C-alpha cells in the first residue's frame, strides 16, 4: 500500500498535485490512502469517489501535541503501507519522526518549494535526513539550493517535477466565449491564481498593473483565490485607483474554463517551487509573464513562451506586461502554442506518474523482502 501524508488538503498547488497523483496511481492498480495533518478543506469527495480513504490527524493548533504522532503511528500499524510519500515540510518532518516508532519499508519526502520556511526548518531536514530513504525536489533550482545549503546530500535527493493533465487543461474557444460573457470581459484580460499570502507578492502585481493600466484603460486583471491578505489587496487596489479594473473572484472550481477566458497569465511570486498554475496556464495555451524564481524558468521559456522578470520589481513586471499586451495577437498565440508543446513534452501528468512509479519500484527493490517480487497490483 502507498500512503500520501500531507500537511493539509486545500486548493493549493502541492495539494492539487498530490490528489492528481493519488487518483492516477489508484487507476493504475496501486492501493492508495491519504492522511492529512490538518482537517481537510478540499478534495475529500474527489478522493473518496476514486476509492481512496482519507484520514485526518486533526492538528488545529501550533502548540506541541503528541497525539498526532500517536495517531499517525496507529494508522501505519493498521494500514501497513509499503511506502509513505510525504508532501510539504510539516508532513515531511512528522513522517521522519514517526518512523522511529512505526517502521515503514520506504519513506519519500517531497519538498514542494525552493524555500520551506527558513534556516531552522532546513536544519531539521539535515538532522532528520537519515530517517528517510529519499528526498525529492519539484524544481532543479530547488534541488541545487538544498544541496548547496547542506539540507540534503546530493546522493539522497532526486528531481521530479509536477505534472499537469493536458486533456483537462487545453484551449477551448467555447469556454472562452462563455466565461468572458459571464464576467463582462471586453478588453485584454490578465489572470492570476493563488492564495493571498506573502510568497505570491500580490502588492508587486497590483503596482505593476497600475503602471500599465494607463496605456490600456480597457485591460482587466482577474485574480482567483483567497487568503489572509485578500482584504489588504482589495484596499490597496482602491488606493491605487485600479479597483474598477480588477475582479477578485475568490475560490473557483472552473479553473480550466477561467484560463481559457484570459489573454495572458501573470505571476509575481517572491519564491516558488514549480507552480501548478503555470503548468496549467501553459497547457491551456496562455503566454505568461512571471518572476524568475524557483522552477518558473523551467516552465516559462523566456522570449519563447513568455517573459521572465526579477522578483519584487514592479517596474520590470509592468514593462513585461506592457510588452506582452503590445504584441500582435498572432505572436501571443504562437507563444501559447509553444507553451503547450513544451508542457506536453516535459510535464504531462502521465509522464510524471511514470517517474514516480519507477522511483517507488527502485526504492522497494533495495529492500531485501521486496527484491524481485514487486507488482503494483499487490502493493
Q: How far from one another are the termini?
A: 5 Å
Average of pLDDT:
94
Q: Main sheet: which strands, in order across?
A: 3-2-1-4-5-6-7
Beta-strand percent range: 15-25%
The CATH superfamily name of the largest domain is: Glycogen Phosphorylase B
Number of domains: 2
User: Which structural class do you get from the secondary structure elements?
Assistant: alpha/beta
Provide the low-confidence segments as ranges.
none
Radius of gyration using CA atoms only = 21 Å
How are the elements arranged and paired?
Elements: E1 2-6, H1 13-27, E2 32-36, H2 44-49, E3 54-56, H3 67-79, E4 83-87, H4 89-98, E5 106-111, H5 119-128, E6 134-137, H6 140-148, E7 157-159, H7 173-183, E8 189-193, H8 202-213, E9 220-224, H9 230-239, E10 246-250, H10 255-261, E11 264-267, H11 276-284, E12 288-291, H12 296-299, E13 306-309, H13 314-326, H14 329-346, H15 349-365
Parallel strand pairs: 1-2, 1-4, 2-3, 4-5, 5-6, 6-7, 8-9, 8-11, 9-10, 11-12, 12-13
Helix pairs in contact: 1-15, 3-4, 4-5, 7-10, 8-13, 11-14
Walk me through the structure.
The chain has 379 residues and is α/β, with parallel strands linked by helices. 43% of the residues lie in helices and 15% in strands. Helix 12 links the parallel strand 12 and strand 13 (306-309). The protein is elongated and about 65 Å long. The N and C termini lie close together (5 Å). The mean pLDDT is 94.
Amino acid at each position: 500500500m502507498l500512503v500520501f501524508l500531507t500537511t493539509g488538503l486545500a486548493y493549493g498547488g502541492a495539494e492539487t498535485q498530490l490528489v492528481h497523483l493519488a487518483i492516477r496511481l489508484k487507476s493504475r492498480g496501486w492501493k492508495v490512502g491519504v492522511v492529512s495533518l490538518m482537517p481537510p478543506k478540499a478534495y475529500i469527495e474527489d478522493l473518496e469517489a476514486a476509492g481512496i480513504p482519507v484520514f485526518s490527524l486533526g492538528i488545529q493548533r501550533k502548540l506541541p501535541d503528541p497525539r498526532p504522532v500517536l495517531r499517525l503511528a496507529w494508522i501505519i500499524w493498521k494500514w501497513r503501507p509499503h511506502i509513505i510519500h510525504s508532501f510539504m515540510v510539516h508532513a515531511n518532518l512528522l513522517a521522519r519522526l514517526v518512523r522511529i516508532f512505526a517502521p515503514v519499508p520506504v519513506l519519500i519526502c517531497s519538498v514542494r518549494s525552493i524555500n520551506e520556511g527558513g534556516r531552522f526548518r532546513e536544519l531539521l531536514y539535515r538532522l532528520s535526513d537519515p530517517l528517510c530513504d529519499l528526498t525529492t525536489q519539484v524544481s532543479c533550482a530547488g534541488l541545487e539550493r538544498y544541496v548547496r545549503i547542506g539540507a540534503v546530500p546530493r546522493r539522497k535527493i532526486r528531481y521530479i517535477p509536477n505534472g499537469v493533465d493536458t486533456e483537462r487543461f487545453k484551449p477551448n474557444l467555447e469556454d472562452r466565449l462563455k466565461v468572458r460573457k459571464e464576467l463582462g470581459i471586453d478588453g485584454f484580460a490578465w489572470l492570476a491564481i493563488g492564495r493571498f499570502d506573502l510568497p505570491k507578492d500580490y502588492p508587486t502585481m497590483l503596482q505593476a498593473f497600475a503602471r500599465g493600466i494607463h496605456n490600456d484603460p480597457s485591460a482587466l486583471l482577474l485574480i482567483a483565490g483567497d487568503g489572509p491578505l485578500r482584504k489588504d489587496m482589495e484596499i490597496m487596489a482602491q488606493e491605487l485607483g485600479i479597483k474598477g479594473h480588477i475582479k477578485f473572484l475568490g475560490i473557483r472550481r472552473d479553473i480550466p474554463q477561467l484560463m481559457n477566458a484570459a489573454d495572458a497569465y501573470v505571476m509575481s511570486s517572491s519564491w516558488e517551487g514549480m507552480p501548478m498554475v503555470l503548468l496549467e496556464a501553459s497547457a491551456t495555451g496562455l503566454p505568461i509573464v512571471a518572476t524568475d524564481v524557483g522552477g518558473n524558468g523551467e516552465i516559462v521559456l523566456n522570449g519563447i513562451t513568455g517573459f521572465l522578470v526579477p522578483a519584487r520589481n514592479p517596474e520590470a513586471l509592468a514593462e513585461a506586461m506592457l510588452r506582452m499586451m503590445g504584441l500582435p495577437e498572432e505572436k501571443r498565440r504562437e507563444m501559447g502554442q509553444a507553451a503547450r508543446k513544451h508542457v506536453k513534452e516535459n510535464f504531462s501528468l502521465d509522464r510524471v506518474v511514470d517517474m514516480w512509479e519507477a522511483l517507488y519500484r527502485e526504492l522497494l527493490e533495495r529492500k531485501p523482502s521486496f527484491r524481485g517480487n514487486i507488482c503494483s497490483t499487490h502493493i
